Amino acid sequence: MVRWLKSRSDSATAGRGQAVERRLSLKPACDGGGCDVAVTPDGPDGTYLPEGYASLGGRKRIEPYTFTWKKATKTYENVAPSTLSSCTNAEGKVIPDAYEFTSTTSLRFTPQEDGRPAVLRGTYTEKSKGVGAGVQAKCTDYESVWNVAAAPTQTTTDDKTDLAGTYLVTEIVETVVPTGSRVPGFAGILLPSSKVEKTATGYTVSGAGSKPAALASGSTGWSGKVSSPTSCTPGQSDIPDAYTLAESWSKLRPVVSTENGKPVISGRWQADWTPTAAGTSAGCTALKNHGYVIFVPQASL
């Protein structure tokens, strides 16, 4: 299951398109459809997380829950129990237990047809309302709405799916050097615009460097590597060609499709910045950023 941010009431642009991926095991209470569905973790170590997907602060949800069948709307819905969460106010101060947080998921099932897998699509809505200390600190109430798509896990590369398009790429950090800049599990927009273009032998994908990587199909998905020169800014000015940036993409594969049929892609990304002689002389040090990535088609935002 993948969800990506569609809108947020307190900002027209903040985080728009940022994505989250989860692995679920679904067990309907009946064989014919139109009944409740039990949800349990289907990720490593009894979690809902995909393989290689770091958890922020070690938090891992493992509780089962239920999608309740709503006959009137023909949807599956889950309303999670409310919890308390922190708020960062206008002065940058973190206020604990400042928000009452609630979330609702509503999904509609489309059966398998024309060679396409069955899919659940709908919305996930979060609401944060100031309570107690949050009201006193003037924490702003807000609501965010996410698009959701879920499909059976694909265990092999789907070579028939056309991956070409322009995507917004979210990274869930696994490792960053120097440490402390982003902790494992931190999620944010890595690339606001990444182009996947078809070639005679596969695809190319644009990343953080100046050159796209050529992707080839394998048993675990699409993968490729590329190196390119890039600058370093140790002081007030850029040092050109101070780094060699080595980018690696692996295990890229379509996991679900959007309403317009475009694929959402997930996989792995690694970037290593190695100082050149010019970079070393200027005081530039080695950098590293490795993580899990999710490509959301810009056409679906």
Order of neighbouring strands in the sheet with most strands: 2-1-9-8-7-6-5-4-3
Total beta strand runs: 17
What's the total helix number? 2
Q: Main beta sheet: strand number and arrangement?
A: 9 strands, antiparallel
The structural class is mainly beta
Rg from Cα: 21 Å
Terminal Cα span: 17 Å
**Overall geometric form:** globular
Unreliable spans are none
Strand percent estimate = over 45%
Topology pattern, helix = H, strand = E? EEEEEEEEHEEEEEEEEHE
Q: Share of helix among residues?
A: under 10%
Overall mean pLDDT stands at 92
* Oligomer description: single chain
Question: Could you characterize what this model shows?
Answer:
The protein has 301 residues and is mainly β. Helix content is 3%, strand content 55%. The protein contains 2 helices and 17 strands. The protein has a 9-stranded antiparallel beta sheet with strand order 2-1-9-8-7-6-5-4-3. Strands 10-11-12-13-14-15-16-17 form an 8-stranded antiparallel beta barrel. Strand 6 (75-88) and strand 7 form a beta hairpin. The radius of gyration is 21 Å and the shape is globular. The model has no long low-confidence stretch (mean pLDDT 92).
Properties at a glance:
301 residues; mainly beta; 9-stranded antiparallel beta sheet; 8-stranded antiparallel beta barrel
Quick structural summary:
The chain has about 300 residues and is mainly beta. It is about 5% helix and about 55% strand. The protein has 2 helices and 17 strands.
Q: What is the strand and helix layout of this fold?
A:
Elements: E1 2-8, E2 19-21, E3 24-28, E4 37-41, E5 65-70, E6 75-88, E7 94-110, E8 119-130, H1 133-136, E9 142-150, E10 165-177, E11 187-198, E12 203-205, E13 213-218, E14 221-232, E15 239-257, E16 263-275, H2 277-281, E17 287-297
Antiparallel strand pairs: 1-2, 1-9, 3-4, 4-5, 5-6, 6-7, 7-8, 8-9, 10-11, 10-17, 11-12, 12-13, 13-14, 14-15, 15-16, 16-17
